Amino acid sequence: MSDQPASASAPVQPDEQEAAVQRSFRELGLDSWLEDALRSLSIKQPSEIQQACIPRILAGKDVIGSATTGSGKTAAFALPILQKLAEDPFGIFALVITPTRELAFQIAEQFRVLGAGVNLKQSVVVGGLDMMTQALELSRRPHVIVATPGRLVDHIKSSTDAVNLKRLKFLVLDEADRLLDETFADDLAVILDQLPKKRQTLLVSATMTDEIKELNFSAQEDRKPFVYECNARFDTVEKLDQRYVFISSTVRDAYLAHLIRTSFESKTMIIFTGKCRTAERLRIMLRELGLRSTALHAQMSQADRLGSLAKFKGGIVPILIATDVGSRGLDIPTVQVVLNYELPADATDYIHRVGRTARAGRGGQSVALVTQHDINVLLNIETKTGRKMEELPVTENDVLEILNEVALAQRVANMHLTDNDFGSRRKINREKTGEIPAHKRGKRRKDDEHVSASGGSGHKKTKVKAA
Ligand code: AMP
């Protein structure tokens, strides 16, 4: 592959020749201390996106990179940033922006492990956690900040010298298609305003839009970004077995319970729902049915969200019930099954959801509960992914047998939500504890509270301009 296709209008796809020439991390230009750090993670050979992007980033190029879920995108940008940082260490060297809080922690963890050899100082700046602690960390000028947009803007607005990004060398937009959607436009504009024009900008996602691929951050022709696209734009992973179960919506919960008890018994799985309330309701219902699960949604406190994720990651509970706050980027290698309790309206969300399994070359399975009302959504997903889903056979009589038991569990769950005034109490608590800054009360939160996380084309987009 040559450097020529760096034109924004001609994305590079790995050709057969490049795929055949497997280069080592050293041959991509990385120092031996980074190779050692990778070895400690049992990572020996660069993935395709790493092969293509690491040399370009080291050479100073802006990069727009897209590759299927779980293909090593984080290391593709973290490794060259760390190498450049080691050559000339100062803070604040790099800013990584990501749409969800859990993803911010996950990215920071990869930086921590890979950057152990250079005494990396880093800071995670996300909503839902104490502003003062974060402000103190920021005042110590970490080398790398990993942030969600809303909270970073809160700090920027809190005082003129709260976050000094003027010497920054790298800006990374992880899940760039999501971040460049209109939801984040105002916050990103504030952040971009703080950054120097001379910097490298790196955009990564598993789903890139044509508009993003055509972005040019620089007015100079010779600074056109290197655009890398591995496989088609909306590919799901080859090793993912994608199924659906055709159901009537009135018995959705019974099918869910039946599948967990039979086809997916003892499997580690994520169940995706559209709403926080549904996630919470299912958690209680499954508990009543003797099935252990934990939840992840925006109506939980950040401490509970992190605790819940830790329990799931650590194998203490086998089922995570999540809204789309968990659909992007989360890397939990043990996940064997993704179950879409409801299909997301947007096919992009579907791709990210099922991308939580079959990661880094492993296999995995996804199942969608589909009613007669979801046929068009299903067809749309199949068109976008270019893959036909097969039906998973389920014996209806087996489901009918557990209807009464499930109905009882449903009643307990509904009563629990009503008794605890689900939703309103949480909001009051967040306001009391200062989790929602005063200037944002009454407004919709900008980071990671959205049920539909993708957003199609036609929205107002942020312009990522630099020099
Ligand atoms: P990501 O796409 O960045 O979320 O990475 C998905 C998973 O792949 C993570 O668990 C990484 O540690 C792992 N990974 C990253 N690079 C490689 C590689 N070159 N070979 C094997 N696994 C990798």
UniProtKB/TrEMBL annotation:
Domain DEAD-box RNA helicase Q, residue spans: 23-51
GO terms assigned for molecular function: ATP binding; hydrolase activity; RNA binding; RNA helicase activity
This protein's record includes keyword ATP-binding: yes
Pfam family, one: Helicase_C
One CC-aspect GO term: cytosol
SUPFAM superfamilies: P-loop containing nucleoside triphosphate hydrolases
Amino acid composition bias (Basic residues), ranges on this chain: 458-467
Biased composition (Basic and acidic residues): 423-438
Chain intervals for the UniProt region annotation (Disordered): 423-467
InterPro entries to which the protein is assigned, alphabetical: DEAD/DEAH_box_helicase_dom, DEAD_box_RNA_helicase, Helicase_ATP-bd, Helicase_C-like, P-loop_NTPase, RNA-helicase_DEAD-box_CS, RNA_helicase_DEAD_Q_motif
Domain Helicase C-terminal: 239-400
Keywords on record: ATP-binding, Helicase, Hydrolase, Nucleotide-binding, RNA-binding
Database matches in SMART domains: DEXDc, HELICc
Residue span of motif Q motif: 23-51
Listed name of the protein: RNA helicase
UniProt lineage: Eukaryota, Fungi, Fungi incertae sedis, Chytridiomycota, Chytridiomycota incertae sedis
